């Protein structure tokens, strides 16, 4: 494994102390494998000529340029990484420059360190492209543990609710047989979240006001609210998963949970990618039976965003206009996570 022992900036024609020598073999047929959110393995083929003279590899790793990016924006400094010549494939690992779900370009050079400290180098290889992976369950468990620290005490709840505009509910009745349909989750939250842009579900809220024990009358998402009894969505036939933990440059934090009916396509998706929670015993949202009645609790100190992975018929609940305000500034639609927050970030990218 290679953990980036050094960095070289610039190119071989400009760097002092680096000379060019054609005899060193040029890497070709580069292969990238075992890609994670913050590491990858790399190997290549080389001619045997002068192979025994190689002491180091130079790797030029850069974020792939976004064609839509602002041309006046400061560009990332190219990163030339230096590694001792080790058996291939070699592992490149480094959370300070590798981010999840990000496209990179990479090229390789062989080098021979001379007695005076200078390097003789080969030509650069061809440039290839690859994309880093999403957070794994290991990374999400780290986020989960950080979220548990600030979740706070549990408050009772009785309903899940979903705010939308009147037109949304009218369209649901007219075109979807009265059933709200799952849609692909947007890109809000952590950049490495495996559910963003992939998981299909219906967004619900469940937080209550401390003084009333009922849902707040204000909403960022529309003046009409669908309310449904908690037990109709969340019960022993439902699996619960931790999806994400983030903030938007604010003091309060969001936790994304996924509720999936056991054995459903959404359940299979989450089972492979997300940490599963005990529905009776976790820090965020619980469902338990007391005296033959289902009782529900939610964490007080985080805002829960709950994704339900199956269609939900409007006849299972009620739709009514809220009496409060529509607070659009609190919307989390495609919201970007604050990468500097120590509370909700882990050390493998953002």
What is the typical, i.e. mean, pLDDT?
85
Percent of residues in beta strands: 35-45%
Category from helices, strands and their pairing: mainly beta
Number of helices: 3
Share of helix, binned: under 10%
Biggest sheet details:
7 strands, mixed
Which sequence of SSEs, written as H and E, runs from N to C? EEEEEEEEEEHEEHEEEEEEHEEEEEE
What's the alpha carbon Rg, rounded to whole Å?
A: 26 Å
Shape: elongated
| Regions with little confidence, pLDDT below 50 for 5+ residues | 1-17, 69-78
N→C terminal distance: 23 Å
Total number of strands: 24
Protein name: Phytanoyl-CoA hydroxylase-interacting protein-like
Function: May play a role in the development of the central system.
Family: Belongs to the PHYHIP family.
Domain Fibronectin type-III: 26-135
Could you give the topology of this structure?
Elements: E1 6-8, E2 18-20, E3 28-33, E4 39-45, E5 56-63, E6 79-84, E7 90-93, E8 103-113, E9 119-121, E10 128-131, H1 137-150, E11 154-157, E12 159-164, H2 166-175, E13 179-180, E14 183-184, E15 200-205, E16 224-229, E17 238-246, E18 254-261, H3 265-273, E19 276-277, E20 285-290, E21 293-299, E22 303-308, E23 312-313, E24 318-321
Parallel strand pairs: 2-9, 18-22
Antiparallel strand pairs: 1-6, 3-4, 4-7, 5-6, 5-8, 8-9, 8-10, 11-21, 12-16, 13-23, 14-15, 15-22, 16-24, 17-18, 17-19, 20-21
Structural features, described:
- The structure is a single chain.
- This protein is mainly β and 350 residues long.
- The chain is built from three helices and 24 strands.
- The radius of gyration is 26 Å and the shape is elongated.
